[in-house]
Design brief:
By secondary structure, the protein is an all-alpha fold. The protein is about 70% helix and about 0% strand. The protein contains 8 helices and no strands. It has helices spanning about 1-5, 35-55, 60-75, 75-85, 85-110, 110-130, 130-150, 160-180. Helix 5 runs parallel beside helix 7 (about 130-150). The chain starts with a helix and ends with a helix.
């Protein structure tokens, strides 16, 4: 009964709680106790920046990037989350979008470092809303496999090096996602 009647903090399941406070909205606590609405505003700005980064990575022009970033940060769904008090979703969404952007860039640039950063985004997103972030991780796995095949090298012998580089990146991402 006490577990049912009390609150269940799924944000830190299996994770060290100290790293949870490195999220942008929690950095406001260094300035004092921020208001509930200020945290939503900071996370909305963070989501806007993540969406802009993703769209610019896809080589979209500046005006459509600004319109798309504003649309995702101020969508009706976002306002529904605010009114319902789902702060964990607000913390998770920027990391989900950033994870997809970093995955996209990692495969195109063949960068294990970018994949490791995507793994860190998974860890921080899981701290905000683990169930929904897991759905984004599954989506990212399918998208990453598609990008992996699509961006494979055309020259002979390059496939093994390409697969090895990406395997190192995936391993680093998995380690970071598990440790953070």
């Amino acid at each position: 009964p006490s577990g049912v009647m009390g609150s269940w903090g799924s944000a830190g399941l299996g994770k060290p709680r100290d790293l949870f406070y490195l999220q942008p909205s929690y950095l406001l606590y260094f300035l004092g106790r921020p208001s509930h609405y200020l945290k939503y505003m900071v996370d909305s700005a963070w989501l806007m920046a993540a969406a802009a980064f993703f769209l610019r990575r896809r080589r979209v022009a500046c005006l459509p990037v600004a319109m798309g970033a504003l649309a995702v940060a101020f969508s009706g769904y976002a306002f529904t989350l605010i009114s319902a008090g789902h702060f964990g979703m607000f913390e998770m969404m920027p990391f989900a979008v950033l994870m997809l952007a970093l995955l996209d860039g990692a495969v195109e640039k063949r960068s294990p470092f970018w994949l490791a950063l995507a793994g860190a985004c998974v860890a921080y997103g899981m701290m905000g809303q683990p169930d929904v972030m897991m759905l984004f991780v599954l989506l990212a796995a399918v998208y990453g496999a598609f990008k992996f095949v699509r961006c494979r090298p055309g020259e002979r012998g390059g496939w093994g090096r390409y697969a090895g580089t990406m395997a190192v990146g995936v391993l680093a991402a998995a380690v970071l996602a598990g440790l953070l």
